[in-house]
Structures are given as structure tokens and as C-alpha cells.
Please model this.
Amino acid sequence: MEIPSELETQINEVIAHYPVSKRSATLPLLHLLQEYFGYISEETIVWVAEKLGLGPINVLEVVTFYPMFHQEPVGKTHIRVCRTLSCAMAGGYDLLKTFCKHAQIGNEEGRHGHILKSMDGKYSIEFVECLASCGSGPVCMINDDFYEVVTQEKVPQLLEKYR
Amino acid sequence: MGSIVRTPHPREKRVIFKNIDRPGWTNDIDCYFNNGGYEDLKKALQMKPEEIVNEVKISGLRGRGGAGFGCGLKWSFIKPGGTKPTYLICNADESEPGTFKDRYIIHQDPHQLIEGMIISCFAVNARLAYIYIRGEFPEGAKILERALAEAKAYGFLGKNILASGFDLKIYVHRGAGAYICGEETGLIESLEGKRPYPRIKPPYFPAVLGLYMSPTIVNNVETLCNVKHIVRIGGTEYAKTGKPNNTGTRILCVSGDVQKPGYYEFEVGSITMGELINDICGGLKPGRKLKAVIPGGSSAKVLRAGERYKLKTKQADGTVVENEIGLEDIPMDFDSLTAVGSMAGSGGVIVMDDSRDMVWVLNNINEFYAHESCGQCTPCREGALWMKKMTDRMMLGGGLEKDTDTLKSVADNIAGRTICAFGEACSWPTQSFVEKFRDEFTVTAAKSGTGSPSTDPQQ
Model:
């Protein structure tokens, strides 16, 4: 596994934020590495464990617990639609279906922890829980960008931005 | 940001949200300086730390994250002169469904939070602090990092802050999508790089055995912002806003079936539920009637339209008067919402009109808690999923007649039997929905056998 020197410098800086225990840097390191590689591989887990002086299991159990870490690549454009009450009342379930239709993701129902992908691997989508913008639902995130009041008509235009 | 931008309602009193959506306001330090930024920190550094703790106590400030615990009292659990260092953590995990206030403070007014944090760290003598921000706020984390760098460049962070002899470092720490990290001991475990399994109290009260087994203060974003205003005007003056034991202002986040959902800041208890829904939020959609309200985030017990409550109020002469009131008459403060059997919680008000199916609503809530249970305690791990499976099969037409009673029985056996308050958080919705809308549940459950047999799509 090749870690570019810039990234390693960034990683070392982050570790310094935790003078009491390097283990605290587990989540930040996983974020940085997932951002770079697109997902968390077994190799990444072992690398993080060695870097922080932990057993691989200590890192694996973190990766498997937190919904934002993926052990498989997601699409180039990853969509997260809020599933929780206020967004659901505002049409969140239909929004997920509309995204699926326009991104050619198939017609399955969205489930947590179940990432749906388009055949070409360009798009992936999942339901996530409350994104803390309940007054402007339905909301979603596309990669790191946040969108609110996402009516179904806005979907094609939004996807166009991430082609 | 900004689809719900509107000028503040005349009945609002904007203190914490003063700069949110303000024309010409930007989130950089120059704009903050032009509006008196960091003056309260300068004042605080002239005070003794224990004086600040005392002012916060006098102010009556109660935590804005959900539990409503006295902030000054929490701080006073830190004993001066201990051998271990003290840490402070800002809980920016904002994840209680229905709540969306910290998001705007972080994105639009980060320096208000940082100034409040520096003052709070000085008060409890914390030299290292973290902002635990939920993973789904990547932009918020960047904004905070930039703001911290700006504050450091001006000497408000780092060594010997403004020649006071006080040193402080603050770092941003991102979560990764788990609701349980909003629970303070779960948050601490997460910050230690582990699964966020909450710790049992006693002995793990954060003020005694918190981060790295050292005394730790965990405060919500809005709470820490309040500290800066308490330093500016003094605890006595602050306590004059709101009501006794319910002081200051509070941001209420309204979502669901109202014409104008959004965030509104009021003096605590200065408006009623009815005024909030009808006057501030423009009422319900045309032709709709109010059916139910969840007043303090999705774990708060639901209130049904038409219910009557007995509310005791203390008069100026000390006598207690009992009044019978309806849902619309409930004053939006901590004590009144507790008195009517629910809670002010995190300030997230979710309004439902008569078009809503209560089984569908509870099923949505149950799915949230089934997904977010950390799995550490058996009653919660099994019970939350069981409740979700039951409401799910009711929705699919494969429910059993006894499901209504079983639901209540499962919920009753979770609350009080878990390490953390998630047990209550996941059972209160089921207990209250089933109790208050029993007919709907019975009717739905009786459709048993008319639809497809129960399946659990998650298994």
C-alpha cells in the first residue's frame, strides 16, 4: 500500500492532536485514508493499527461499527438520503427512489448499511439517519455536499452536476 | 444553507442566533471582531475561574443538549487542585431527530462557539479541548478548523493567551455516523478511538472519570455559546430572562406539518405550544387539523391533540396553583414539558397533522432506534429491533392482534434496564404512541392476515 508523503505528513500532524493516546487518532486516520482510497481495505486496517501501535482488531471493530466507513468502494458519486421522520414526512422515501431511477440504480428499496450501486459504478446511494436539517426536508448529501428541500424535480439537475 | 431563511419573528429574542442569516454577516474572524468579537474572552480572563463558574451557576443555565442539567452544577463537580488534567469536550454531534440548531452555529458563527469554549476551558482549568463534530458535517469541520487557526493567529489559543498565563489547545474531532456518540460517555469512548459503548455511571461520571480516565466536562454547542453571554451581562442579569429554573433563551427547531418550519429563538417559556405552531410557524397546512406533537426530539414522549394536563405553577407568594390546560397552552420550557409527561429535550419540535398514520410514524422512529442501538445491553439491542419488527409487520398487514400489547410490554422492559439513556430514548416513543393512539394500533394490528406474512428485510 502506497501512502503519498503529503498524506503521511497530514496523518502525523493529526496524531499529534492526541498527546495522551495515539489510539484516539483511529477515526481521523480512517477518515483521511477513506478519503484517499475511497474505502477501507484490510491493508488499510493493518497499516492504521501498526501506525498507532494497536492490534488490527482494534481498528476493524471501529470500521465495522461506524456507518460512515465502507469496506468496499462506493460509487464515484455517493448519495446519502435522510430516512428519518421529518424528512420521511417530507418525501424522503420517494426521493431515494427518484435518485435510483435517474442514476440507473435499479428499483430496490433503500436500507441502512445496504449501499445500492449503479451498474457502471458511477453512482451509489444509501439511506442514512437524521442529517440535522429537519426543517428543510427532504435533505441529502452528495459526496461531501449538502442539499436541502430536494424535491424530486431537482434530481436530474443535481445528478448532472456530478456526472 | 438558507432555504428557510427569514427575518426573525417579532416575538423572538435572538441572542445565540443573533448573527444567523444576518445580512452582511460572514463566518470569518474579521466580521466577528467588527461586532465585538472576543471582548467577552478578554473580560473573562480578568476574572478568577471560580468567579466564572459562580456566574454560570447564578445564571441558572441548563444544558441545551437534551438532559437539561445545570451547567454550573456540572462544572462544580470538577474539584480544583486534582492531580489529573481536566478536559473539555464540545458535543457537536447534533443527531437527535428533529434537532437542527448547532448546524447553523457551526457553519455561520463558529467564533461564538470558540469564544464560549475558551472561556469555559478557563473556568474549569482545561488546557486541552476537543470539538466532537458529527461525521456528516464535513464542511462544518473545515469551517471550525479554519476558525480555530484564525483564533490561534490572534493569540486567543495556544500559549499564554492574551498574557493571562493560560494555555489552551482545541482540536476538531470528527465522528462517523453513529447517533450513540451524542451520549457523553459514548462520545468519550469514541474520542478514545474505540466503539462508542457508553460507560456505566457510577463510577464513570465524566467529571470524575472521563476522557483518559480524567475529569472531563462535556457540553453542547448551544450551552457553550451561552457562557460567553453570561460573562458579558453577568449571571444575575442572565437569570432575568426566561423563567425561574428555565432561564435564558432557547432555540426551538420546528419541523413536520407546519407552514413555516425552521429555527426560532425565544426566552424560555415565553410562548406556548399553540402560539409556536399557529402564530410563529403559520399554522398547519390548509384544511388540516393538529394530531400530535413530539416536543423535544424523537425520543420525547408524543403529545396528542385534545389531551388535558394538570399543570402546577408556583405563584410569586410561594403558593402553588393547579390549572388544567390543553396541548396548545403548554409553555415551551423545561419544567412545563416535564410536567405534562414529556420533555423539552433538545428543542426539536415535530408537528403531525391528521393526515399522518401513527403506526407509520412510530415505525419510522423505531427503525431509527433499532439501527442506532449500540448493541451493548441486551434489552436495548434486542428490544429496539423487536419493536421495529412489530411495527414493520403491522405496516405490511402481517401484524398479530396481540402486537399492541406486546409492543408496550417490550418497551416497558427496556427503560431502566440499560447502561445509558438510549434505553429510555427508544422506549418512550413506543410507550407513548401505543398509549395515546391505541385505537389506531389495534385497528392496524387487526388487519392481520390480510397482507403478506411478516418478513424482516434487514435480516
User: Anything to note?
Assistant: Chain A touches chain B through 47 residues (CB under 8 Å). Residues 26-37 of chain A form the longest helix (12 residues). The beta strands of chain A are 77-82, 116-117, 123-128, 140-142, 145-147. The longest strand of chain A covers residues 77-82.
